[in-house]
Write a structure and sequence with these properties.
18 strands, 156 residues, ten-stranded parallel beta sheet, 8% helix, mainly beta, single chain, six-stranded parallel beta sheet
Length: 156
């Protein structure tokens, strides 16, 4: 009767029943640390060391000025000050600081580049399109409408 006190565990204090969906955690790969393999996180990730593999986070990825990533980065937001060799996919804002060195393709919602940053590759900005379609059909060989030049060539 008097034991109806709310449960005050960290999961319920955040009104969140699944502790894996909180992004309050910060993961730090310090200077002098090297990791070979993929890194997946629900929280923020900061790299000041070396990662030889991909980074995937549902939050923010920060690559410090001493950080080196040889692999793909997939994040909601990202600040880059170090060196990246791989594809960067950011759903919201990618910020390349003046010391950033990027070699690879970028797909992002928004891009901010400071004077001095270096980037080699292609860049696509705007909403990410996952499935390209023609009308109600998936794009497959033979489903696309023929070009007028091709139609004329066949009828001649």
């Amino acid at each position: 009767m008097f034991n109806n006190k709310p449960d005050k565990t960290p999961e319920t204090m955040n009104n969140n029943k699944n502790p894996e969906t909180t992004s309050a955690s910060i993961n730090l790969i310090g200077t002098g640390t090297s990791i070979e393999g993929d890194l997946k996180s629900n929280g923020d990730v900061r790299v000041d060391g070396n990662i030889y593999g991909s980074i995937q986070t549902k939050a923010k990825a920060v690559i410090g000025s001493t950080g080196v990533v040889e692999g793909d980065i997939n994040a909601q937001n990202s600040d880059i000050s170090g060196t990246i060799k791989g594809k960067i996919t950011v759903t919201e804002l990618l910020f390349l600081k003046s010391t950033a060195r990027v070699s690879g393709d970028i797909v992002t919602g928004k891009l901010e580049v400071e004077v001095g940053a270096s980037f080699t590759g292609s860049c696509n900005m705007g909403p990410v399109i996952k499935d390209m379609k023609y009308g109600d059909k998936d794009t497959k060989y033979g489903d696309k409408p023929a070009s007028p030049a091709l139609v004329q060539e066949k009828s001649a």
